[in-house]
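Project outcomes to date are best conveyed with an example. Our students and postdoctoral researchers have been running inverse folding experiments weekly, and each run begins with a structure described purely in tokens. The record below, which covers 105 residues, was selected by the lab manager from last quarter's runs and is presented without edits.
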């Protein structure tokens, strides 16, 4: 029986759009860690994430170093607002390119 107090995480994208993608998670969006991390998501743990009021989700995957190498498997409790795959790296402003001019040839 599922508890009436259990709430599924309110993710900004479907879980299928997270698995296999790289997330850059700032330190303030990650619990139980001193620093942020770059995570190649392998699994979204909705089953054990329901106890965080819908605001946090457990992710599992490969932690990636600044050099691009895998530091190994890890799990992280991440705020749902950090679960976007197109976010710029932490500390960098979002930059959008203007649309290319139409080809008139």
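After processing, the design step wrote out the following sequence:
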């Amino acid at each position: 029986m599922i508890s009436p107090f259990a709430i599924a995480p309110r993710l900004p994208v479907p879980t299928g759009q997270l698995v296999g993608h790289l997330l850059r998670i700032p330190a303030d969006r990650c619990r139980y860690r001193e620093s942020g991390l770059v995570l190649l998501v392998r699994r979204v743990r909705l089953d054990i994430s329901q106890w965080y009021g819908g605001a946090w989700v457990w992710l599992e995957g490969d932690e990636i170093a600044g050099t691009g190498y895998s530091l190994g498997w890890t799990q992280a409790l991440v705020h749902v607002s950090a679960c976007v795959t197109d976010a710029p790296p932490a500390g960098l402003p979002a930059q959008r390119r203007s649309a290319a001019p139409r080809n008139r040839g």
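The mean pLDDT is 81. The helical segments are 46-49. The training component of this project remains on track.
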